């Protein structure tokens, strides 16, 4: 096999699956544990949001550190820190969970930047979207079985099983990660001019000044906010729905992400053009999915699981589409840093899904909170619209 499915990339995808497997379990265990300890939705949202909020803060610096110290050294260091964070969950309470989420966030910033930027730089233009989609696919695979395992662990009431699982994942990920190899050019540190740090700091202004980066970042921020609200509160919302099951919902969503990213990986635009109709359709699906989840408290489990299916499709396609587009239109000189900022906005959105929507749920209800998410997504449909591009696309049909 060649390109994005060649053996060197398959090995990176395997490491990705192992790395994110713990989080698929923690995304269910932490809200359930927090509720059992009497924590409010606001507190649970803050703990859950700390993970990707920290990732967002550290991601713009990750590329520079990797460039300075070498990918292999950085990878091995973060895997050791990540292992410690996973073990921290096994013997602490909510305060320890908060600290562990922060540690995990730091590790994920470096881990994902190492792999994604490596894929972008290594693959030719025509295969770039496939590589990004495959990485995202593998990051989503643990979400298929992880929620079911988490519910099973929680229902046994024996947290020793949880402890064994975290230790096992930490060890296995470390073994695979420490045995990973990269080309000598990728693995070695690179002594670059000191001006790079200044360039990186100045790049923050591009979030507003660069119209391509601004549009993609805003779309991803709101979409990720919806995804984050689902991840954080579905385990607590599902019992309110007749026939609703959080594990089944999360498995349907993650399974749809995996299937859609593999089946549609060649359909994702990889030409550097803004496909308004396509992107607006994906944001519309986010809105319909959120509203379906909101209505399920009255309409029943059918709407609940349809929402999971639609949410999975949107999540599978929107992120790689926007990321691939940016790799073409951003200036080559500081492309990696700017892509890092875009990914950081996606992280911020997921974090805000817990931090902002938690108080909304406390003041109203989960159903109302998901309706707010749907309204925000509808507004982003208008934001994605570019009349000239839509007219051109319709003429081509």
TrEMBL record:
GO terms for molecular function: transmembrane transporter activity. It holds the Pfam family MFS_1. Residues 8-389 form the Major facilitator superfamily (MFS) profile domain. It is found in: Cell membrane. One of its GO terms (cellular component) is plasma membrane. NCBIfam families: opine_export_Sa. PANTHER family: PERMEASE (PTHR23531:SF2), QUINOLENE RESISTANCE PROTEIN NORA (PTHR23531). This is MFS transporter.
